[in-house]
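Inputs:
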Amino acid sequence: MTSPHRITGKARVAGVIGWPVTHTLSPALHNYWLAQYGIDGTYIPLSVTADHLAEVIRALPVMGLAGVSLTLPHKELVLPMLNSIDATATAIGAVNTVIVTPEGKLHGTNTDAYGFLANIRPHLTATNKAVVLGAGGAAKAVVYALAQAGFAEIVLLNRSLNKAQAIAASFPAAKAANWDYRDDALQNADLLVNATSLGMTGKDPLDIDIEALPTAALVTDIVYAPLTTELLARAQKRGNPTVDGLGMLLHQAVPSFEAWFGQKPEVTEALRNYILSGLA
Ligand code: ATR
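Outputs:
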């Protein structure tokens, strides 16, 4: 038997707040790292409705928690409940990580953009033109990341054009375009990102013709269930490099874990396989 992960009364405690929280992969992810690095700490799921979010957030310092991750619908609701919010979370308009400071204050940050970029950066060969599908919370983090990466042109297409326009207004390199234009928008692109929920198990398929996309362009999907979405499968078939969405989830947890537990963890193939084994 391998030695169990020992947790003492001095353990640092963090968690994930969501409603529902039952499908989250974050406890498996953070507890894998805690065991790997032999850290006296634990990470738990916390099922909290929007109605109770404020009282739970306020209680974090008095309960001695190191911090929490937030999933939908709490990422935006938490903004007025914090003492400070960093520039990234302010620009994205959402907080996915709350850190309790040594003074007992609540600090908000957003690691989704970091996670998106860390996942694709090793595969990115050019940063002239990106095409992003979708204009929800995830799309905003993606556009923020692409602007940081120096993309000269970011074309944002969404079924509801006004939501794409609202995001594009915050980023000089971004411009919104009509959803009907999505096939043609792919010309000369270096990167295509699906940031909609289309193609996810149980959702509608993503209806797009990628013939105009250069075969050198990188294709990535924020959807990771299924791991190889139909978009990624089609891209691979015509020779495009692809990156699946699971890596974004793994990488976005890195800065949060480091802030709470004082160790920068590694995203490895073994970790990926461990998380995948829980998805099956
Ligand atoms: P969020 O990311 O904020 O949770 P969501 O409701 O899950 O948002 O939707 C994510 C994205 O998928 C949105 O850009 C949404 O388009 P709208 O803004 O027009 O709602 C997009 N989406 C969902 N279903 C779609 C469909 N059938 N066709 C086109 N886009 C769709």
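Remarks. Residues 12-110+248-279 form a domain with the Rossmann fold fold (CATH 3.40.50.10860). The longest strand covers residues 12-18.
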